[in-house]
Write a structure and sequence with these properties.
Helix content of chain A: 55-70%
Order of helices and strands of chain A: HHHHHHHHHH
Largest sheet of chain A: none
Largest interface: A-B, 54 and 54 residues
Number of helices of chain A: 10
Distance between the termini of chain A: 60 Å
Shape of chain A: elongated
Low-confidence stretches of chain A: none
Strand content of chain A: under 5%
Structural class of chain A: mainly alpha
Radius of gyration of chain A: 19 Å
Oligomer: homodimer
Number of strands of chain A: 0
Chain lengths: 195, 195
DNA sequence: TTAATTATATACCATTTAATACAGAATTAA
DNA sequence: TTAATTCTGTATTAAATGGTATATAATTAA
């Protein structure tokens, strides 16, 4: 048994609250008081439980990827590359325009630009976006080897195209674009897909 | 003649310096000392000449749109909608990957998310992005009425697709993507264009 | 009970933030 | 010269930032 006074707050719930706050305001726009208020915990509790702002953000990114952004994992399970692509776009639109969520994508609007002091955050997010793109690329490579995609198709290019559209959708939804309009954008993007 | 001590700095050059700083660091990541250092002027001079940080940013946005982002105006002069689209993507890639510039697009990475205190900045940028999209939409409407685009083509959807790809490219370049790779993305996007 | 351990709350710290007050310097108009 | 005007530099302000020191409360192990 571990001794000591037990925590009076739920770590998972607190992380969720932190996630939505960072999602809405970005890393810079979120202050420690913003976080403690949203998480309903005291400042020292935050530092004791999560390290510091940067460490908390990293935990939040993990959580974001494994919960709201899990549509990526679902998408690559589709039987054909085209369906993978389709599900990717629809999943992104659903997530980013869900009224229960802040608009946009945490990996995009967390921090696209920064002063030298927080370069680390920006690079961390770029790396996470690149990781998603790499996952898609692997799936498309598989599709090529299975004959599901035409010979000569470049999986890396196709994956980067998918990532570009998804990230573009994130900018659009951050600006308040409507789900219905973005579904038409997805339809158009699908026409670029090789048959 | 206007009397008084003359300015010892060039307003245009100072605005350029401010533009690159905001472009690289975003609105939040840029502090007033960052600006005064880059512009080589004192703090009170900045306030006297440009108002405050927000007003300076607005002037910088105008400048960005009329200089580096003027490729939009060039693109819509192309004779066909497809060429407009092509030039739009190539122009965006050229601008965003020019080694002389910070990566990405100021209208995108200036501020995608924010705390309540600076909602105004975020909305201002969203409005400027929407304005660009509206310009493209007008051009595509013209193309439809000229018979350059197939009947039934929705200019609004096509314009939003173009904006989405351009903004997606901005996210990619902010993350360090290479020009060569993004040209392939542009090729793919072009395949979605109606003939 | 006692000791050890862990969480909480108040209060605080140094630094940085955007923004200004004020005095002096440089110019034009009369 | 004189007055009016405008810019510049130093110094300062109040508020907000991320991060802690310290004391106390609550639990387990002995």
């Amino acid at each position: 048994m571990k001794s000591g006074r037990p925590r009076t707050f739920d770590t998972e719930k607190a992380l969720d609250r932190a996630m939505y706050t960072f999602w809405r305001k970005g890393y810079y726009g979120t202050s420690i008081p913003d976080l403690t208020r949203a998480m309903s915990i005291s400042r020292p509790s935050l530092y004791a439980a999560f390290g510091n702002k940067e460490a908390l953000f990293a935990k939040v990114l993990d959580r974001y990827r494994s919960k709201p952004a899990a549509y990526l994992n679902e998408a690559i399970k589709e039987p054909t590359a085209k369906k993978v692509f389709e599900k990717l776009l629809l999943g992104a639109i659903d997530l980013q325009t869900d009224p229960a969520n802040p608009g946009g994508c945490l990996f995009v609007q967390g921090a696209l630009a920064s002063g030298e002091s927080n370069d680390a955050i920006r690079h961390e997010l770029a790396a996470r976006r690149a990781s998603g793109e790499a996952t898609i690329k692997l799936r498309f490579e598989q599709a090529v080897s299975e004959g599901d995609l035409p010979v000569g198709t470049n999986p890396a290019d196709l994956a980067k195209f998918a990532a570009t559209v998804v990230h573009g959708l994130a900018v659009q939804t951050a600006g308040g674009d409507e789900r219905e309009d973005l579904l038409h954008v997805a339809d158009l993007a699908l026409r670029a897909f090789p048959n």
